[in-house]
Records
---
Amino acid sequence: MIPHYHLFIDGEFKDSGASVDVINPATDEPIATINMAHARDVEAAIISSRRAYDQGPWRALPYAQRKDYILKIARGILDRAQELATLESLNSGKPIKETTFMDVPSAAQTFEYFANNFERFLQEDVIKIQSPIAHAQADLIREPRGVVVLIVPWNYPLLITSWKLAQALAAGNTVILKPSSLTPLTALELGKIIAAAKLPKGVVNIITGSGEVIGEQLCADSRVDMISFTGSNSVGKKILEYTSAHVKKTIMELGGKSASIVLADADLELAVNGSLCSIFLNQGQMCTAMSRILVEDGIYEKFVADFINKAQRIKLGEATDFETQMGPLISREQREKVIACIEGARAQGATIACGGTIPAALNLQKGFFFEPTVITEATSSMAIFQEEVFGPVVCIHRFSDIQQALELANDSDFGLAAAVWTRNVTSAQELAQKINAGTVWINTYGMFFNELPYGGFKQSGFGKELGREGFLEYTRLKNTLTDTTPEGKPLVNYWYGF
């Protein structure tokens, strides 16, 4: 019998009465069932979070106790690391090498980092004011936002949950977590870890449900103080509409159409191998996927030949096999979307240099597998060059000089990330300053650190995750101003002269 997961509300696991299957995308078969929240469940979660923030102990706990709770979550993740990695692979389709060595340990490290650093980030700033007309002291105090709704996408279920949850909790907020209904299992297992850590009731609530059914209720409610969302632009725009009913803080980490610039002096092996990772990790289902690779004329033919040769050798298979290098796409619908994008590019005159089809191997027929795809001869005006595909599809485009490469890289509605490959690091750093993206990697890809902020520009959203800057997004700044005039009589005392 497959496992069943309940909602986690007010410290208890509760049955909503409505369930759906959760599918393994490698087999198109159910691996679990989950409860789907109704309006009454959302209301219960909001009441629980609001009460826990307004009346509960969480935000007033001594920092040492808050730190201890968060470290217990980190330890709980590490204690169940193998189980969580396997579950993440079964549910999301990403290879177990990625979940074992990247997602799960990184999730635990995020909780550890913010547990060990939030007190330093929250240190009060004191500013002395001395002017000809006034003397004062300003105490700048960081407070939690209140009730924070965290909406997590299906492509990095545990890791992005951990990013958001660790910061929100360390800042002293209470949380309603809504994972994607496609990949909720590790977030729901995290609920069990939180329950075992004995966080006060209502500090974390986890509800699964359709965004179309419960999204507006969660985001428009005046009792919710902040929304942190990672996902598609179309859903992000809906959330902004919902939040306009009661103005509140939002973080939007949306889509991308990231560009990688490969200069002629690059280490070719490094650039090819790094570029393979930059588009085919997690089946290309990454906001930061380098789906536009711009290669200088002098090495273009060699780069394309090497890239295609290696792309065709990527081993597809079930995610739980350690030999698998690329798993299935998340769903049949996502695969159909990818196919439609490729056929649109073909119709516009682009060349499908490799891939572009469902693999023929019998062992891959049940799942939503798709071959690594390389497109050449795509112009910058084509939809495939401008719109996010969110699959294992890359356009490789040549350029003749750096200015042309820069113009191509910046010719996008998105501005999430970019990469530069060259042996001349000084030149790369100068180029990075001109690229309109929130993160620019030089001679590497996908390096995320808890110490460093992450977030995009333009249609890729606003706000940061991680680092001190990301942590402070989950706080509000209060200015407490005290008059320190030597005589004890500030100007306001004499303004009307009575």
---
Amino acid sequence: MTDRKLTAIIVDDEPLALEGLRIRLEKTEDVEVIAEAQDGDSAIQACQKLSPDVLFLDLQMPGLNGLEVVQALQSDTLPFIVFVSAYSDYAVDAFELNAIDYILKPVNLGRLQKTIERLKERFTPQSNEQEKHKLLQALGQTSGVAIAELEEWLSSDEPMPTAFPQELVIKNSDNERVFVSIDDIRWIDAAGDYMCVHADTETHIIRITMKKLTEQLDQRVFQRIHKSTLVNVNYIKGIQPLKNNESMLDLGKDIKLKVSRNYSDAVQAILGTKVNLKS
């Protein structure tokens, strides 16, 4: 369990109900009430200013009701929500908004303590580690990066790692190895068993098949637009429709590449996945 007190804002339009809830929370010794509000607008302002751990919220209030307050607060900083109401009619709606609990008035201290125990479990290091592990597993499945590498990344300021190489190793005419940054490659086209890798300043020749090279590259970045051509979508400046369901890509620097009609759907994929456009 967490050693610190949970910070809370309590909201009720009835002063006596507000006082009663505050007194009972203070008796638990696990919750610190940092603000009180008697209407929805004030509750929203207090949450945005103080970022509490939990919001104890009445449902029926003048102006915005409790459900509308939660909907207005939907964000990454939304506190845990506990609804407090004299009516059970809204319980289903409340839990659809991912409320932690729904307490009926008058609030019983024993019932309130069970709610607080539930809240404390959400703040335990074990719970946080479980959530972190689930996040890393999901990232690992979508990115192909090992969980151990993702764990190291979480504690750094580095960009998220990728399972794909960041450089191509190419032998030049002097049989020397040249490292070409993936980010510098504008497009790649095939010439028999060789691939022409067109980078910012020069073209490199590599002996490899299109199929094998494609497997090494992030397909979210390198899109096939012809049976023998791959393009780095981050260099695309524009797309011009042509006849016969073909298109022309503008890569800047007077470079234009035709999209084969057999790959016309790739144009839409390009528009949907293109990220980090280079200027």
